[in-house]
Amino acid sequence: AFVQLDGEDVGFNLNLNSDIFSILPTKDSVKNLINGVYNVMMDNIGEVTFVETELTANGITQKCVEYTVELSEKEAAAETVKLLKHLETDENLKNIVVCFVNYYNIVSGADADSELYFDPDEAYAEVVEYIREGISEIEAGEYSDETALIWKSYITDKQNIIGIKLDLIDVESGDAEVLYIGTAGDKKNTGIEIYATDLGVKVLEINGKTVLDGKTLSGSFEVKTEGEDVTVLSFENVDAAKLLEGQFNGTVKVSLS
Question: Which of 194, 186, 248 is nearest to 211 (CA)?
Answer without folding.
Answer: 186
